[in-house]
Structure formats: C-alpha cells, structure tokens
Amino acid sequence: MILERTDEQIVIRISSEIDKIGFQKVIEYLNYLELTSKTKATQDDADKLADELNENWWAENRKSFIN
To answer: Residues 3-21: pLDDT tens digits?
Structure first.
C-alpha cells in the first residue's frame, strides 16, 4: 500500500487483489468521513432526524405489518 498526501488530497494505492466487499466498506466509511467533515450538525440533530424518518417510514408501512 502506498499513501500520498498533498495539500488537497490523500491518495491511497493498494493491490488490486484486495477483497472487494471489505474494500467497498472501507470506501463507504471514507466517503462518510468526507461528507461529514464540514458539517455543523450535532449528534442530537442526527438523532432527531433519524427519529423523524423512522416515524414517517412506520406511518407509511404500518399496514404491511399490522392488519
């Protein structure tokens, strides 16, 4: 593995023989870090949004689970 850091980027070079599923999980985590690196949202904000989304999902899908 080769790791290069510039003023604007971090470049990672790895063997093409790496496990694709594991690598995809690493990429998703790095993408998450990049997307959230400049956010001003707090954990409480994220929790409230998750609760709201869950409530909306349950309201829309309740009939599928409860007759």
So the answer is: 999 999 999 999 989 999 9
